[in-house]
UniProtKB/TrEMBL annotation:
It comes from the Bacteria. Residues 21-169 form the General stress protein FMN-binding split barrel domain. It comes from Mucilaginibacter rubeus. This is Pyridoxamine 5'-phosphate oxidase family protein. PANTHER family: PROTEIN BLI-3.
Amino acid sequence: MDSINQQQPEDNMQDLNGPEALAKIKEMAESAKSCFFVSNIKTGVPASVRPMSAQKIDDAGNFWFLSANDSHKNDELAKDPFVHLLFQGSAYSDFLNLYGFATITEDKEKIKELWEPTLKVWFTEGIDDPRISIIKVEPSEGYYWDNKHGNAVAFVKRLAGAAIGKTIDDSVEGKLTV
């Protein structure tokens, strides 16, 4: 345990497994303001990082992204299907770090399910654009940093801690095992 956590009066470590981990992943990923998709993890070249938006997070915890089948990321995933997803919900909490395995398909029914009109910005021919592919990411493990009682309570605890010179932190963190 690190020195900051040793000073806290509250237990702030909570590892989650199975259904609890899936629920936390879905909750945090759906409320995140940003997602970074990292590929080229095991190829020996620098990792590729790009912002992406998940079109859907299903009940099994799988992430569904739409991607151009001629994109660099699709080429990278064909060589190395391991990915790292990073999410940030706010400046002080809601951080989610996931590792998983990506597969690429061009299932037309799934494309119809995931399609939104704003995607025409990237797929100019619309839902029938021949360049659309689907990336499914199945997370296997991760780590989260959150707060227990919401951002307002966490902020008040930080202010009080700063005023009295004591660590009063409303954070909670732990391993996620799917």
